[in-house]
């Protein structure tokens, strides 16, 4: 499984990206949207998610800091083709540019790792099919 992560500055754009994915062959069970919240556990949940997903501690902290201030859309893709389609959608809807460990500017991240169910950011924004 490939996890695709897009971080958005605007909640509306994250929701629109999620809705587009649902309308185009992706399912609710494979898409998570987590919006910036005022809950004290949000800080830890977002940090735990990126620490679980990324091996580089500095990169995980950077992604977590961006994600805590925005909205995170995560797609759990079943194939490389599906992952690339999801990344293209997230980028087209305005996923922000982040710098990866090698300082290359990237938008949506494709990470070949399965996210444990307990670490997923199923979040506070359920999608409707």
UniProtKB/TrEMBL annotation:
Domain of life the protein comes from: Bacteria
UniProt name for this protein: Uncharacterized protein
Species for this entry: Mucilaginibacter pankratovii
Lineage: Bacteria, Pseudomonadati, Bacteroidota, Sphingobacteriia, Sphingobacteriales
């Amino acid at each position: 499984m490939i996890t695709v992560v897009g971080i958005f500055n605007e909640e509306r754009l994250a929701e629109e990206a999620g809705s587009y994915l649902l309308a185009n062959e992706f399912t609710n069970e494979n898409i998570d949207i987590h919006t910036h919240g005022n809950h004290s556990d949000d800080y830890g949940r977002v940090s735990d998610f990126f620490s679980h997903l990324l091996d580089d501690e500095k990169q995980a902290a950077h992604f977590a800091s961006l994600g805590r201030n925005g909205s995170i859309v995560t797609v759990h893709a079943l194939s490389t083709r599906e992952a690339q389609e999801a990344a293209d959608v997230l980028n087209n809807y305005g996923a922000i540019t982040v710098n990866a460990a090698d300082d290359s500017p990237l938008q949506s991240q494709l990470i070949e790792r399965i996210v444990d169910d307990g670490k997923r950011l199923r979040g506070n924004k359920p999608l409707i099919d």
